[in-house]
Amino acid sequence: MIDQQTADYISRINKALDFIDQNLEKDISLDDLATTANFSKYHFSRIFLAFINETPFQFVLRVRLEKAATLLLSNPGVSITEIAWQCGFSDIVIFSRNFKRRFGYSATQYRKIRHNNRNKSQTDSKNEQAFRPFSQYLCTDLITKKMEKVMKENKSVEVKIIPEMTLAYIRHIGPYQGNENLFENLWNRLFAWAGPRGLLGQKDLKSLIIYHDDPNVTNEEKLRMSLCISVPENTEVGGEIGKMTLESANYVIARFELDASQFGEAWNWVYAQWLPQSGYQPDDKPCFEMYPEEPKNGLFTVEICVPVKPM
């Protein structure tokens, strides 16, 4: 368990991280972040660096560039200039210079090479070493025939609007893929906070995991995820438990019954099989997993929720 003082610092840093996510396309100043986190601007950068291992400037720049890299692939019809603008870059020259420094390729080359790699079988080519296939939670193009059959037998898919939700969350930064003990520990800590407050007995309780970063673009040690439960809007939080609003949006909701080893293939099926044939493309909002039922006999009922908009 972390001490109360550290928990308070985590809470305030989380508020700054949430502010960045909600305002990525806008100018974000050090004053904005320090005020949001309720720290003096003269000390905020050092505190942020101590907890996140990046300065606020480095973090904002990296997240903007990684968001742009994801949008380049998920929105092939949108110009690079428009994507740069959506990610907070008002100067295309500055965007281009930083993008190449981060990924080793220009945005045009990145989009072309990654698109070509998605349309050919896996080889040991130099390009595919530079651009590894989409990992567990964002699509890969090679799905085994056996798993494709499993997905077809188990899937239920609909597109609908998910209403706005207020969420209490506990956040993890770092590797998470395949780490069942990590997920169990985080859920236990969140539920231990929620239980005494009567929040687990809500009539329409929602449990979900939000993935803030593309694991194909963001280094493992920087990946952010939030384990959440829905709460009343006036719920008070503190310490390592934060609160955010998930805005209403149109989502494809794909429901599966899976064991722990099949989550990656389920995400892959949604991105590589369903989306290209659906008439939709991913929208620029968080994707998440929602858990409508308790696990039974080692199987999880999960709804994979991806924000979508018409092509």
Inertia-based shape: globular
Q: What is the chain-wise order of helices and strands?
A: HHHHHHHHHEEHEEEEHEEE
Rg to the nearest angstrom? Answer: 20 Å
Would you tell me the structural class of the helices and strands? alpha+beta
Instruction: Tell me the total number of β-strands.
Output: 9
Helix content: 40-55%
Number of helices: 11
> Mean pLDDT, as a whole number?
85
Main β-sheet, in a few words?
Answer: 9 strands, antiparallel
Uncertain runs with pLDDT below 50, 5 residues or more?
Answer: 121-143
Quote the distance from N terminus to C terminus. 47 Å
Strand content: 15-25%
Quick summary:
The protein has eleven helices and nine strands. The chain has 311 residues and is α+β, with helices and mostly antiparallel strands.
Write up what this structure looks like.
Helix 4 (56-74) crosses helix 5 and helix 4 (56-74) packs across helix 6 (92-103). Helices cover 42% and strands 20% of the residues. It is an alpha+beta fold and 311 residues long. It has helices spanning 4-22, 30-37, 41-52, 56-74, 80-86, 92-103, 107-118, 126-130, 145-154, 180-194, 263-274; strands at residues 156-162, 165-173, 207-211, 224-230, 241-246, 249-258, 280-282, 287-290, 300-310. The chain contains 11 helices and 9 strands.
